[in-house]
Amino acid sequence: MAVSPSVVVPKLSLSKLDGPLCFRSGQLVPEHPDHLWYINQGLVRTLTWNEEGDLVTLGLWGVGDCIGRLLSEVTPFQMECLSSVEIKPLSLSGQDLGVVMRSHLRYMEELFSIISYKRAPQRLLRFLDWLGDRFGRKVEQGRILDLGLTHQLLAEITGITRVTATRLLNEFEREGKLMRLPKQQMLLQFNSSHPDRVTSLARHRAKGKRK
């Protein structure tokens, strides 16, 4: 699968970089074999695709996260800006690189466990909950997501259709689980993470014992 003509891959002399770089939404962050990128601002998606050309989201990364080819063995591999992004080069090695890799693995495992849910409503709700924990801003009424994620992108990441994503978001809003705000912001008025995850794990273990 080739890079879409609408996606701009900046041509940079990476060896001479010593300050932050800015990208627009839709641009790809260039790879570098020797260093990582530290995200100062914005949201980046790491992704790959299968032989049929279906995109597979590997992770979502925001302020304070590190991204880069050093952290993945997957091929093909791309880093796509989902908003205006500012990054700076960062050299890590040894123990520090190990800490970053463990953090990456944790968030990727969490995301993949969410995508494994068979029922679309549960999968999308869990994903929103994960986004709220990961990127949300806590307020009295819940958690505000200000990521600018479109229905199409939510559908793409969770493996459902855009029509289904829109329908489910409308249902969640009617049920009082979320409130959509201007500028693609969202107020999550639920937090199903902790008790439901314990219950799900207990049920999973119980099923294993019955087999």
Arrangement of strands in the largest sheet: 1-7-2-5
SS field, number of helical segments: 5
Taking the sheet with the most strands, its summary is:
4 strands, antiparallel
Q: How would you sum up the global shape?
A: globular
Structural class call reads alpha+beta
| Strand percent estimate | 15-25%
Terminal residue distance: 42 Å
| Total number of strands | 11
Low-confidence stretches: 1-16, 194-211
Percent of residues in helices comes to 25-40%
What does the radius of gyration come to?
Answer: 18 Å
- Write down the secondary-structure element order: EEEEEEEHHEEHHEEH
Overall mean pLDDT: 84
Textual characterization of the structure:
The protein has 211 residues and is of the alpha+beta class. The chain contains five helices and eleven strands; from the N terminus they run βββββββααββααββα. It has helices at residues 94-115, 120-135, 151-158, 162-174, 193-210; strands at 21-23, 36-41, 44-49, 55-61, 66-67, 78-81, 85-90, 137-139, 142-145, 178-181, 185-188. The chain has a four-stranded antiparallel sheet, with no helix packed on it. β10 (178-181) and β11 form a beta hairpin. α1 (94-115) runs antiparallel to α2 and α2 crosses α4. The longest helix has 22 residues, at 94-115. The radius of gyration is 18 Å and the shape is globular.
Structure at a glance:
By secondary structure, the protein is an alpha+beta fold.
Topology (SSEs and partners):
Blueprint: E1 21-23, E2 36-41, E3 44-49, E4 55-61, E5 66-67, E6 78-81, E7 85-90, H1 94-115, H2 120-135, E8 137-139, E9 142-145, H3 151-158, H4 162-174, E10 178-181, E11 185-188, H5 193-210
Antiparallel strand pairs: 1-7, 2-5, 2-7, 3-4, 3-6, 8-9, 9-11, 10-11
